Amino acid sequence: MRLFYQPHIGSGADYLDLEESRHCVKVLRLKQGDPIRIIDGSGWLYSGQLTRVDARKCFFSVVEKHFEEPKDYHIHVAIAPTKNLDRLEWFVEKSVEIGIDRISPILCRQSERRTLKTDRLKRKAVSAMKQSLKFRMPEISELLPFERILSDTGNVEKFIAHVDDLPRPHLINAAKRGGQYLVLIGPEGDFSREEIDTAMSQGFEPVSLGDSRLRTETAGIAACHILNLINCSG
């Protein structure tokens, strides 16, 4: 099943944007009358038919639609952007494939990258969403100060994954099934002691992601995967 993305289809948009249209015509070589499936990133899958094919703007008609109910858990990873942006893009791509609901880049005291444009991250997320046959687009925020993410948590299970020699519970044992989760992942130089203490004072539980020392983007993937495993059926 090949999916196309049109976030405004629910408001009446009956066309694909330039990038999606080019892929439809130049790569897949679809023709007028061919069936097409479109997602809006909010849980809806639309089945339709191409009515006009053009590499700049393809039009379609909707035949039927299906809604996928949201999961009973929510995964939010707040992560310090890596100096090499390719590594952060890899995290976004793979976490979307595994299953994630919100990604918040955070600016920490020891962050290597202190500015970030999220347009490319969102394009990576769209591509991964279609590739992995997901119907929901995760929220990707702009770069937020560390203190901001601490004060905007709501009623969630809060964890901070950082490096030290103290015994800490593994995330797979600390998190409860069916929860609303927020996991903080620091930069390559880790969180500062002050940031760790501040997070703990606001209810964040220190957790381990395993015995290995992980790179930032790998830690983010590990946290995402662990929380999905906790909520696997069976």
UniProtKB/TrEMBL annotation:
<dbReference type="GO" id="GO:0032259">
    <property type="term" value="P:methylation"/>
</dbReference>
<dbReference type="Pfam" id="PF20260">
    <property type="entry name" value="PUA_4"/>
</dbReference>
<dbReference type="Pfam" id="PF04452">
    <property type="entry name" value="Methyltrans_RNA"/>
</dbReference>
<keyword id="KW-0698">rRNA processing</keyword>
<keyword id="KW-0808">Transferase</keyword>
<keyword id="KW-0489">Methyltransferase</keyword>
<dbReference type="InterPro" id="IPR046886">
    <property type="entry name" value="RsmE_MTase_dom"/>
</dbReference>
<dbReference type="InterPro" id="IPR046887">
    <property type="entry name" value="RsmE_PUA-like"/>
</dbReference>
<dbReference type="InterPro" id="IPR015947">
    <property type="entry name" value="PUA-like_sf"/>
</dbReference>
<keyword id="KW-0963">Cytoplasm</keyword>
<dbReference type="InterPro" id="IPR029026">
    <property type="entry name" value="tRNA_m1G_MTases_N"/>
</dbReference>
<dbReference type="InterPro" id="IPR029028">
    <property type="entry name" value="Alpha/beta_knot_MTases"/>
</dbReference>
<dbReference type="GO" id="GO:0008168">
    <property type="term" value="F:methyltransferase activity"/>
</dbReference>
<feature type="domain" description="Ribosomal RNA small subunit methyltransferase E methyltransferase">
    <location>
        <begin position="71"/>
        <end position="227"/>
    </location>
</feature>
<protein>
    <recommendedName>
        <fullName>Ribosomal RNA small subunit methyltransferase E</fullName>
        <ecNumber>2.1.1.193</ecNumber>
    </recommendedName>
</protein>
<feature type="domain" description="Ribosomal RNA small subunit methyltransferase E PUA-like">
    <location>
        <begin position="19"/>
        <end position="62"/>
    </location>
</feature>
<keyword id="KW-0949">S-adenosyl-L-methionine</keyword>
<comment type="function">
    <text>Specifically methylates the N3 position of the uracil ring of uridine 1498 (m3U1498) in 16S rRNA. Acts on the fully assembled 30S ribosomal subunit.</text>
</comment>
<comment type="similarity">
    <text>Belongs to the RNA methyltransferase RsmE family.</text>
</comment>
<dbReference type="InterPro" id="IPR006700">
    <property type="entry name" value="RsmE"/>
</dbReference>
